[in-house]
Amino acid sequence: MSCLKLNNLACGYPQHGTKNSELLVVNQLNLTLNDGEIACLLGPSGCGKTTVLRAIAGFHGLNAGEIWLSDHKLADVNSAVPPERRRIGMVFQDYALFPHLSVKDNVTFGLHKLSKSEQNSICHEMLSLVKLEHLGDRFPHELSGGQQQRVALARALAAKPSLLLLDEPFSNLDVDLRRTLALEVRNILKQQNITAIMVTHDQEEAFAFADVIGVMNDGKLHQWDTPYNLYHQPNSRFVASFIGQGVFLSGRINKQHIETELGHVACDVSSSVSENIVSENTETHVDVLVRPDDIIHDQNSTVTGEVCGKIFAGTSTLYTLKLPSGTELLANFPSHLDYSLGQEIPLSANFQHLISYAKETA
């Protein structure tokens, strides 16, 4: 059953120096989020993802479209349910805890209509959930960043929201803690069957946290899909280049294979080439997406790449390899294969999911 629906959503901001005119930062956005699903809006800075979150929360008006939550309309162009009546919780980037209140008082802040015993019961449940039951009497400044974020999560969940919104909640934490806390928060939300949307620009964080991810750019939703499909089956050139690491390699379709600098790649032309009309009687130039995991060390290959960069990552090493044409590729090799800068490596491509697009022209 769907929990959240956004229909043809558009949001804008007034343009300076122009009367009665707004610049749209979100335009014709549609998505559906099911009960219990955890989603993420991912995209570069300024793409409109935070504006979408603010519109759902009720902090930003609509220029067009509708917002529905569990079959109740929250907003359209002419009307809007106030934020405090939407049953939507929010976790902010800067935690937004009250510094003069204890952890317990922060968690129960929005529960003033309940009796004291009910407040204490919910507070104990929430602090146990985020594993902070022993810190209830402390104040925010006495906690670490990760602990403060857990308190913010406990406060948001205490009101039993129908939907939880998280605005880059881990961006103020160090890298290792961000990944760990993202997984912990995901487990808590799944345990409580909470539907949630997070905004982030960190792909690894999004992949670890979300069941479904929406890739945004220039105010539009390019693809709403699982992390696996975004990586292996991107539906546009932007998604293909934005998700993961990769380089576009020039190729030419010749019957049932694509000729590239790495050799012939057998393919089903109809399924491997997007945004292009392929004629049986003409050769079609394409750009083939080559990801680091597509490149293999192949002693039998006559194609070599010169090592011009390497990043050791423990279990693997990410190499930058320059082909004879000057094109640079990325390749992930097991860390026991150790090559020096300037060394030539024999290589070939093994595409499990071939992704190619019509050749871009200047």
TrEMBL record:
UniProt cross-references to InterPro entries, sorted A to Z: AAA+_ATPase, ABC_SmlMolc_Importer, ABC_transporter-like_ATP-bd, ABC_transporter-like_CS, Mo/tungstate-bd_C_term_dom, P-loop_NTPase, Transp-assoc_OB_typ2
Keyword Transport: yes
Domain of life: Bacteria
The UniProt record lists the keyword ATP-binding: yes
Gene3D superfamilies reported in the protein's UniProt record: 2.40.50.100, P-loop containing nucleotide triphosphate hydrolases (3.40.50.300)
Pfam family, one: ABC_tran
Domain ABC transporter: from-to ranges: 4-243
Keyword entries, A-Z: ATP-binding, Nucleotide-binding, Transport
Molecular function GO labels: ATP binding
Family annotation (SMART domains): AAA
Protein name, UniProt field: ABC transporter ATP-binding protein
